[in-house]
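In response to reviewer comment 3 from the previous cycle, which asked for concrete evidence that the modeling workflow produces usable outputs, we include below a single protein chain processed end to end. The sequence was submitted unchanged, and the resulting structure tokens are shown without manual editing.
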Amino acid sequence: MIQLKVSHLSKTFKDFKAVDDVSFEAHGGEIFGLLGPNGAGKTTTIRVIATVLQPTGGTAVVAGYDIQKDPESVRKHLGLLTSDIGLYDRFTARENLRYFGRLYGMSEGALKDRIDELIQLLDMQGFADRRAGKFSTGMKQKVAIARSVIHDPDVVIFDEPTSGLDVLASQTVIRFMKRMRDQGKLVILSTHDMAHAQSLCDRVAIIHRSELIAEDSVQALLQKYKVVTLEEAFIKIVGEDEAKSLAKEEESKQFGKTSDKKNSKKISKEKFIKILRLASIGFILIGLIISFAKIGGDKAQRVSEPIIILGAIGAVLSRFLQKKKI
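The workflow returned the following structure tokens.
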């Protein structure tokens, strides 16, 4: 059964086309991979399907409901896990789940049973009644996954669900994804990790530079391009030159982030030196005014001297920092 049908979907931000005429189908009872490098358009595609963003063109049908004609029904039948975990720190894991279950209009009896079931399935017994503010990343991710499926949706989208998790936590999440697939649900895994997708997905769609460039079963793609890994298939599809270009772009982004941090530190130090210099001048002026105007009478000299000395020390220090490489 087709649980997700994406038809000529497009999304443009000003002059940038983030998703360009993307079409694919995914069925219940499978883990469907939405693959591609960072910045390819996967997250934007997911947000449009989940009715978080309005499409510029085309549409998608989720569990029989059109994202534009009936977005409320789409949200009732769709679960979404993004990188933004967004738990309430003061609530326990159980209270977080209860809160979101009530938002979906679940009855108290059904909600209690569902929470108990998810706590068991995701191995959360040890921290279910502890406040979320002190949870590890793995604990928070498990609660976030439980929250995204609290209403037992037909379609569940996971965006990098095992990112930042240790091996044991990752295996719990993977077992849960497979269990939902075996229950006949459609599980969509959005990731840039081709090896991870190859081990989990039944079929995949590969997005590159906002466009869909391949859609098939994992085995069919490997056979078609005569390779043993999805990563090799991707390189053959986009071409080796393009793959090298992507690698350079990723390196450039990482270098840019490092440079931005260094520049930010440099600007902060420059601001500190400027503030220190101005404060030093201010102390010296205040001290001189107190001394010459004899504010405080006979005590003026005793009051002004420490202030002037403090200002002089600050001036010398700012001068020293200015000369030093920063």
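DSSP finds eleven helices and ten strands in the chain. We consider this sufficient to address the reviewer's concern, and the full set will be provided in the supplementary archive.
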